[in-house]
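Write out the 3D structure for:
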Amino acid sequence: MVIMTVYEQILKANSLDKQMTISETAKYLNLSTQTVRKQIKTGRIKATSHNKQFRILKAQFHDCN
């Protein structure tokens, strides 16, 4: 079990609260942008659309216990 200080927990929460573009997500997950688009379409990656651009919440790729 990993015990984090309050400061570390705040830093982690702030970094996971980021919305990424498709290209940022692809780079973060080491995938191609086409693969990220396919996974959004199939529902494996959750995304919202803003002005014809997808935004992906970084927190969905982490276990937030």
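The beta strands are 19-20, 48-50, 53-57.
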